[in-house]
Amino acid sequence: xxxxxxxxxxxxxxxxxxxxxxxxxxxxxxxxxxxxxxxxxxxxxxxxxxxxxxxxxxxxxxxxxxxxxxxxxxxxxxxxxxxxxxxxxxxxxxxxxxxxxxxxxxxxxxxxxxxxxxxxxxxxxxxxxxxxxxxxxxxxxxxxxxxxxxxxxxxxxxxxxxxxxxxxxxxxxxxxxxxxxxxxxxxxxxxxxxxxxxxxxxxxxxxxxxxxxxxxxxxxxxxxxxxxxxxxxxxxxxxxxxxxxxxxxxxxxxxxxxxxxxxxxxxxxxxxxxxxxxxxxxxxx
Length: 285
Fold this sequence. Notes:
Layout: H1 2-23, H2 29-51, H3 61-84, H4 87-94, H5 99-107, H6 114-130, H7 142-164, H8 169-196, H9 211-234, H10 238-245, H11 248-260, H12 266-284
Helix pairs in contact: 1-9, 1-10, 1-11, 2-3, 2-8, 2-9, 3-4, 3-7, 3-8, 4-7, 5-7, 5-10, 6-10, 6-12, 7-9, 8-9, 9-10
Protein name: EamA domain-containing protein
InterPro entries: EamA_dom, EmrE-like
GO cellular component, one term: membrane
């Protein structure tokens, strides 16, 4: 069960990153984050009301609030880093986020077996290679590296916090709702401050109607990924769930190949193969 939900997480996050990357080509990154999260919060609010999720309110929701504060910062930093590029450095470097939940799992006493350790090493190597790392001639600004590391820390923190925010499915819906409301509030405040400084919130000509379905997809895929990761981490080793969930760069690369006809470099194809091998080792370990 852990492997299934963690791999579903990587699929959803990979597609959400692909959609978010496309949207930020024409729309400011912070606007994409706030709008997509607001749509997700609206849908989650309806689910919470329908399921009576308010009955699960308790101290654990503070974990969701903290995750809601870390999430927008991580997403904004990641999108800005992708815009500065090169993506072949940003994408694999962001997978350092896996260090936070894996570290938490080890501190809590989890000890993966030898086969799982091998699977983790192979899978992480595969993810880094699947990002298409720049091996030469790629100047990287310090700001890009800093933004990517901030994003990785933020993503890893969300990984760890959302796992602690609930203990059952009904509570999970409520915690995800609280997380998204917090994200919208924090991101909205940042967007307002940005606009006050003269940065436009919308592209020239306004936001096209065709962007709304894409924003909805990005927001809902992201929140669904948070949910499936929480289930994966609660029903199995966090170390395994975190590594499998971090395979999303492979999905993003494959989506770019399928939808944008971007050709995979040899190193990316090799990385995808290693990621698959690592996944098999983790699933059987």
